[in-house]
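Work Package 4 report. The design task specified in the project plan requires that, given a folded chain encoded as structure tokens, an amino acid be chosen for each position. We show below one input record used in the internal validation round.
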């Protein structure tokens, strides 16, 4: 029997092992006031979050991550299309409501991390209105705040302006990322929806404005940021075409037809992050201001952010923007990353994190190594390989943040188990997630074992599916967006029935109210698993993680060991429909350890189908 994947995990501060609860405010909880029109208002608010702080505290989490609640036209981007970075959307509440909520969490020693969207704004943002209109009194100040193609370079064909290059909109890869604006008589870039113009982060004035926005929220008391879409911080100043991945096939048949070399992952992204990190240092290590961000690329690029290094070959940051991007190795040792979606040179690396406190990061995002599972066709063996690879390239596993669900992907119960999902599947996934080194993100409802409903079952009468399916890809349970954003089922009654999506029938038997009364529920298991993680140094602290070979690929066994206390824990997971024989003697003989006193009779342990087992061991 062989051992696999031994990694050394270094000591760091609380963020490196935190359990973080992600809240999607639009569908979390609504309190007080009157609901506005269901297509213009929102159905959760800050007061609703404040009301549920005691519930969140009861889970035992260390921090919360709040998706956007800033002033924005919610119909377009559901909070990710901001019109005012320093204020709250009226339907979510006021700054006073935010302060009350923040104080409530802090009084319970729960940190608060908030989403920030710096890659783009809404088209109605005052900056864009001034930028697009040459007659606007502030046009000169804001004319270069967005990515405009130089008017003198625009070419025409048959009297029509031709898009500057082949860059594509992420919201629909067959559509151009360029939109003609008659006021400016030029094209502006929109990597997402045409109503979300890209900010020009190649412009140092824009970056200074972003830093000032971040300072506004740090001064208000937030403990950190999750930064959205960082891969879109900056662009190729020469506006070169991206090479095609399949030039011999019709463009519309390829989901991602380009290698995104020139429209994402530009050196400006690192410059912007460095500016933000410098800001967090001003708040001192005790403030533990942390930032987590999204990135898009493969494991190789992720490794470049994890490895120690600095900018090379450039006299200053501005020069580095126009230099070969390979000259910029990385920013600081505080970066961590996560890899998501597909493997290969164009895979998606969805997160990088930095902190003001240099001795440890906080990542509030999701690790793609946990995207694939039994229902994905790759199996637990591939899942384990991904985890091992993540640990191998990380300069300390405390720099990894793990999650299985979030607001942008299908819930793990649907993604991994489909219609066969049961509470035991949910408990198994939670146990595995909470056994991994580093920090953990739980998405609202994951502690209840929620699945993804088909969108047709939760839409409102007369609704256009385009409202729920902006990519026009699917309306089934596997589609990630709105099917994962259904109302948090508190009681199955009250304001939940007035939310923008209906509570699906499959969730009515999984409400918080019902699970509170069942000691065998997924909710109670979540609380116990988080408490178990906190109690046991082997799972909580840094040290070693060692995978063991198993007889079946659907079994996973590893050892976690604390470098602080020396405690070791054998963690075993059975992802099959059959009982699993865990041969302790065979496993532990390889490691030169034995079960802790009192467990010596357990040379062979039979594990039930879809169950987990934790056994403390000693040298």
């Amino acid at each position: 029997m062989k051992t696999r994947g031994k990694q050394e995990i270094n000591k760091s501060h609380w963020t490196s092992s935190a359990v973080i609860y992600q809240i999607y405010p639009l569908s979390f909880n609504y309190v007080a006031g009157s609901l506005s029109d269901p297509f213009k208002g929102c159905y959760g608010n800050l007061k609703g979050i404040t009301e549920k702080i005691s519930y969140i505290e009861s889970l035992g989490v260390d921090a919360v991550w709040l998706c956007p609640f800033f002033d924005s036209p919610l119909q377009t981007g559901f909070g990710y299309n901001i019109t005012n970075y320093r204020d709250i959307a009226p339907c979510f509440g006021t700054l006073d409501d935010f302060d009350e909520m923040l104080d409530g969490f802090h009084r319970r020693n729960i940190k608060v991390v908030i989403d920030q969207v710096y890659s783009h704004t809404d088209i109605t943002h005052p900056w864009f209105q001034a930028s697009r209109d040459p007659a606007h009194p502030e046009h000169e100040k804001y004319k270069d705040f967005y990515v405009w193609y130089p008017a003198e370079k625009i070419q025409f064909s048959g009297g029509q302006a031709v898009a500057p290059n082949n860059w594509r909109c992420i919201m629909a890869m067959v559509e151009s990322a360029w939109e003609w604006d008659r006021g400016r008589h030029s094209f502006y870039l929109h990597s997402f929806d045409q109503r979300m113009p890209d900010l020009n982060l190649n412009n140092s004035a824009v970056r200074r404005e972003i830093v000032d926005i971040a300072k506004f929220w740090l001064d208000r008391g937030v403990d950190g940021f999750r930064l959205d879409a960082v891969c879109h911080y900056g662009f190729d100043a020469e506006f070169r075409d991206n090479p095609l991945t399949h030039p011999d096939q019709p463009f519309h048949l390829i989901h991602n037809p380009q290698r995104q070399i020139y429209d994402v992952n530009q050196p400006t992204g690192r410059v912007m992050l460095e500016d933000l990190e410098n800001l967090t240092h001003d708040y001192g290590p005790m403030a533990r201001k942390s930032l987590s961000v999204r990135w898009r690329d493969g494991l190789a690029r992720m490794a470049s952010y994890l490895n120690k290094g600095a900018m090379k070959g450039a006299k200053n940051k501005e020069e580095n923007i126009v230099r070969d991007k390979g000259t910029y190795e990385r920013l600081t040792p505080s970066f961590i990353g996560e890899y998501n979606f597909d493997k290969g040179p164009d895979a998606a690396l969805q997160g990088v994190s930095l902190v003001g406190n240099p001795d440890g990061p906080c990542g509030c995002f999701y690790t793609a190594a946990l995207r694939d599972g039994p229902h994905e066709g790759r199996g637990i063996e591939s899942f384990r390989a991904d985890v091992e690879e993540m640990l191998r390239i990380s300069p300390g596993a405390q720099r990894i943040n793990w999650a299985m669900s979030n607001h942008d992907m299908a819930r793990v119960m649907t993604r991994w188990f489909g219609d066969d999902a049961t509470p035991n599947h949910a408990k198994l996934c939670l146990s595995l997630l909470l056994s991994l080194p580093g920090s953990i993100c739980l998405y609202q409802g994951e502690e209840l074992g929620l699945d993804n409903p088909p969108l047709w079952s939760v839409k409102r009468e007369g609704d256009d599916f385009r409202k729920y399916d902006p990519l026009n890809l699917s309306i089934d349970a596997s589609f990630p967006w709105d099917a994962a954003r259904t109302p948090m089922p508190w009681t199955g009654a009250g304001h939940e029935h007035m939310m923008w999506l209906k509570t699906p029938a499959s969730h009515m038997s999984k409400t918080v109210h019902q699970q509170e009364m069942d000691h065998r529920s997924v909710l109670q298991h979540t609380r116990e698993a988080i408490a178990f993680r906190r109690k046991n140094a082997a799972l909580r602290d840094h040290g070693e993680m060692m995978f063991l070979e198993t007889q079946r690929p659907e079994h996973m066994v590893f050892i976690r060991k604390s470098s602080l206390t020396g405690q070791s824990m054998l963690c075993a997971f059975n992802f099959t429909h059959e009982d699993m024989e865990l041969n302790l003697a065979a496993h532990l003989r390889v490691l030169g350890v034995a079960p802790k006193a009192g467990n010596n009779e357990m040379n062979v342990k039979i594990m039930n189908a879809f169950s987990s087992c934790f056994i403390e061991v000693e040298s």
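The longest helix spans residues 204-220. Validation will be extended to a larger panel in the next phase.
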